């Protein structure tokens, strides 16, 4: 059974940086990603990264100020977020794809294991 544990959330001010980390239980994770869900909104993919570390995906809302990285030995995936905005406020979820994946466009249904989430609140 896959277990994902997120950390790094908290209350920050606009313009600050934050690093979210996720540790996954040992097996192969073909894709690792971060989603977020704000109150009253659908869960959205923020960033995703493949096993190879290439062709990372970023949502337009975070592109240029966020970096996703993974360590395949430690089974971790991190999301560095800079220049945070109040609209980044949400619960952030770590998620993984545990089946061989060859798609080019990620969909929420591709991810088959999820963490419990960590709250990020950005004050203005």
Anisotropy-based shape: globular
State the total count of DSSP E strands.
Answer: 11
Rounded to the nearest angstrom, the radius of gyration is: 13 Å
Question: What structural category arises from helix and sheet content?
Answer: mainly beta
Low-confidence stretches: none
Largest sheet, if any?
Answer: 7 strands, mixed
* Mean pLDDT across all amino acids: 95
Summary of the model, kept short:
With 124 residues, the chain is mainly beta. 0% of the residues lie in helices and 48% in strands.
Tell me about this structure.
The chain is mostly beta strands. The chain contains no helices and eleven strands. It has strands at residues 4-7, 10-13, 18-24, 31-37, 44-50, 57-58, 66-71, 76-81, 90-97, 113-114, 118-123. The strands form two sheets. Strands 2, 4, 5, 6, 9, 10 and 11 form a seven-stranded mixed beta sheet that branches. The protein starts with a strand and ends with a strand. The mean pLDDT is 95.
Keywords:
single chain, four-stranded antiparallel sheet, mainly beta, globular, seven-stranded mixed sheet, 0% helix, 124 residues
Give the SSE layout.
Blueprint: E1 4-7, E2 10-13, E3 18-24, E4 31-37, E5 44-50, E6 57-58, E7 66-71, E8 76-81, E9 90-97, E10 113-114, E11 118-123
Parallel strand pairs: 2-11
Antiparallel strand pairs: 1-3, 3-8, 4-5, 4-9, 5-6, 7-8, 9-10, 9-11
């Amino acid at each position: 059974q896959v277990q994902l544990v997120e950390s790094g959330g908290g209350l920050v001010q606009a313009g600050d940086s934050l690093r979210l980390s996720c540790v996954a239980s040992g097996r192969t994770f073909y894709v690792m990603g971060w989603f977020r869900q704000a109150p009253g909104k659908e869960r959205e993919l923020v960033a995703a990264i493949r096993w190879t570390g290439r062709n990372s995906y970023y949502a337009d809302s975070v592109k240029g100020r966020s970096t996703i990285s993974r360590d395949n030995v430690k089974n971790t995936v991190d999301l560095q977020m800079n220049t945070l905005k109040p609209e980044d406020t949400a619960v952030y979820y770590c998620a993984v794809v545990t089946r061989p994946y060859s798609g080019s466009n990620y969909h929420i249904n591709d991810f088959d294991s999820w963490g419990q989430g960590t709250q990020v609140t950005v004050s203005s």
